[in-house]
Design a protein that fits this description.
The chain is mainly α and about 220 residues long. Helices cover about 70% and strands about 0% of the residues. It has helices at about 1-25, 30-35, 35-45, 50-65, 70-85, 95-100, 110-120, 135-150, 155-175, 180-190, 195-210. It is globular.
Length: about 220
């Protein structure tokens, strides 16, 4: 159980990191942290997994280019707004409803389903993040919490229902729209920082799904 707990903590850490990345614009301090040794060491560790090497390399390249970009914080904030706070035609909106909803509008069934899951598991949405429940950042935060719930069980057998819930969530609430979101980000993010982040997230989710299925 100790090994599972340690591995789950690493998984939750990744999802919470990605949640924060897609939740708000990065500050100058955030960008500095991306360029320091601790983050690069973390990415190097991720890149040791074969399935993650290419997306990690692409994301590290985006970080490197960011360091050479004039007015990096302002330009990256503009990228964030253009992608995530614009329209479906010009951006890559981070809401499941825009990709798998029936109406093509915000707050469709995926948002309703997420609200039910948040209530079911007693996970509160941050009050300062006033977005529909199917926002990518909220879904990733929820998944991180779901992973930690498995760690609160006494044995791996006791944790199995939570592990299966993670698999179901990945397959039915994230991977059903994350590929389309990633494609949109790639098509509409010329600089490529957020497109690279989305690609890394997608690769990690697919790898994590295999882990939960026992297909490591």
């Amino acid at each position: 159980m100790k090994e599972l707990i340690a591995f789950n903590e690493q998984r939750a850490e990744f999802y919470w990191w990605m949640s924060s990345l897609f939740a708000r614009e990065l500050t100058a301090e955030d960008i500095a942290q991306y360029q320091d040794g601790e983050m690069l060491t973390y990415l190097s560790g991720l890149g040791m997994t074969e399935e993650l090497k290419q997306p990690v390399d692409a994301f590290r390249d985006a970080i490197h280019r960011l360091g050479q970009r004039a007015d990096a914080q302002l330009e990256l904030a503009a990228d964030f707004c253009g992608l995530f706070l614009s329209t479906p035609k010009s951006g890559a909106l981070p809401y499941a409803s825009m990709y798998v909803g029936e109406s093509g509008l915000m707050n469709d069934k995926p948002a309703q389903d997420m609200n039910q899951l948040l209530d079911e598991y007693g996970i509160a949405q941050r009050k300062d993040f006033n977005e529909p429940a199917d926002h990518l950042a909220i879904e990733l935060d929820f998944l991180g919490n779901l992973i930690i719930m498995a760690n609160q069980q006494k044995t791996e057998t006791d944790a199995e229902p939570q592990m299966q819930a993670q698999l179901h969530f990945l397959e039915n609430m994230l991977l059903n729209w994350l590929p389309a979101f990633t494609s949109a980000a790639k098509a509409r993010d010329p600089f490529g920082f957020y497109a690279a982040a989305a690609s890394l997230l997608l690769a990690f989710c697919r790898l994590d799904t295999n882990f939960l299925k026992g297909e490591e």
